[in-house]
Amino acid sequence: MALQLKNGSGGQNDKPLNEVENKATDFGGEFEGKIDSSDPLSKYRGGYGDGKIDAEKINDLPAYTGPTYIPSDNAGVNSNKKTRNIIVYSIFAVILILIGVVIVKTARNLTSSGGKDISENLTLSEEELSKKMSVQFSDNPNASKRIPQYSTGAVTVKSGNGLDVIYIDGKQVGISTASRDYRFFGIGINDPEKTVESKMTYVFEDEFIVLDDALYGQSDTTYYYNEKNNDCFALTFNKNTARVVCMTYYTNYKRITETVD
Questions:
Q1: pLDDT in tens, 11-51
Q2: Can you tell me the distance from the alpha carbon of 94 to that of 46, in angstroms, rounded to the nearest whole number?
Q3: pTM greater than 0.85
Q4: How far is C-alpha 181 from the chain's CA centre?
Q5: Which segments of 71-136 are extended strands (E)?
């Protein structure tokens, strides 16, 4: 047995649902199933149910009263603030690390000593030294002012790669350095004054000190000498740091101490 659906109004005008659908959806070139305001079906917005749902009452349904998330206006601000804080802290940490590296390097530079020991070359002539160590020497008039010596002759100096070859009246009398690239008799630039005699390999008979000897009155020089060999090892110490700032070996001790009482 076939079922026939009706619109549910119960009147004489009840029609099968398929007939109503045909009326409302008869597309002929344009939409012909327009809903007429006088049509009792229009209040159902074209719906063809049982007529119990009134379209006008749909908007009167109670509003949702459950929990609702409302984004805070400060959410973005707080996020940006946290990002900025992370960046600032990172930059600050990098700065602290760099400062620490500089402090360590500075401290090491002030306290460390190094260089190659060239004691066996200190008696060589300029030509021999230049050939053996691949150093080119040239005149250095300013260096003669800081050479610790007390002769009556004219002092001239030739310098190259941190080494100074000393002449008095044109005759070579010694070699000096203020560079950390070299060591003389086990001693290097920046070694503490209190440790030099225990480390020094130069054999001396005695010593004497000349106060405010060089470097414009900021240093004292200790002369370790050996009269039998007529040589001398002079160490200049900075008065403020008590560390070696210049080393000089002389092959003619008598000549460089002519005016010393």
A1: 455 555 444 444 444 444 444 445 555 555 555 454 545 55
A2: 72
A3: no
A4: 27
A5: 116-117
